[in-house]
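Help needed: design a sequence for this.
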């Protein structure tokens, strides 16, 4: 047997023995994919993760309005980046879950952002077929002083 055949057989064996991803892992994967798509300026690919009946900000925004917001932000900033802090996922029922996290969103014309804001996100997810789709989301800005107050002090600090 050639090395290529042996490698292929080992890959098949490992894949067949692996455990299926948990709900938490699949939702986090969807969030990370959305992060990568928005950072890559791929609005259509980003929107594929959002359910058709999506609502945001307690029902004050729909999917089309969020798409317009995404287009606006991508046109406003040459480079849009997000840094997500720990994502907490809870399965809320068969095919439903919530995910909460904090994100630092920055934008600017190049590698060094010229603006940024920290947001708290609360999201609701629904399994449709094999895909976890974002069904609803709420976000609110976090004041800088609150962010700074929550940072851990370095060793030896008061």
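Sure. Designed sequence:
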């Amino acid at each position: 047997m050639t090395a290529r055949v042996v490698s292929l057989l080992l890959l098949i064996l490992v894949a067949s023995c692996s455990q299926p991803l948990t709900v938490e892992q699949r939702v986090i994967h969807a969030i990370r994919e959305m992060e990568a798509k928005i950072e890559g300026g791929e609005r259509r690919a980003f929107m594929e993760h959002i359910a058709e009946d999506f609502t945001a900000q307690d029902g004050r925004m729909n999917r089309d309005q969020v798409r317009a917001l995404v287009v606006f932000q991508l046109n406003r900033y040459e480079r849009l980046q997000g840094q997500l802090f720990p994502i907490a996922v809870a399965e809320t029922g068969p095919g439903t879950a919530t995910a909460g996290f904090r994100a630092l969103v920055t934008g600017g014309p190049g590698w060094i952002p010229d603006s940024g804001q920290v947001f708290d996100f609360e999201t609701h997810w629904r399994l449709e077929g094999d895909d976890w789709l974002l069904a609803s989301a709420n976000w609110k800005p976090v004041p800088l002083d609150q962010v700074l107050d929550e940072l851990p002090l370095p060793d030896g600090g008061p």
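The chain has one domain: 21-150.
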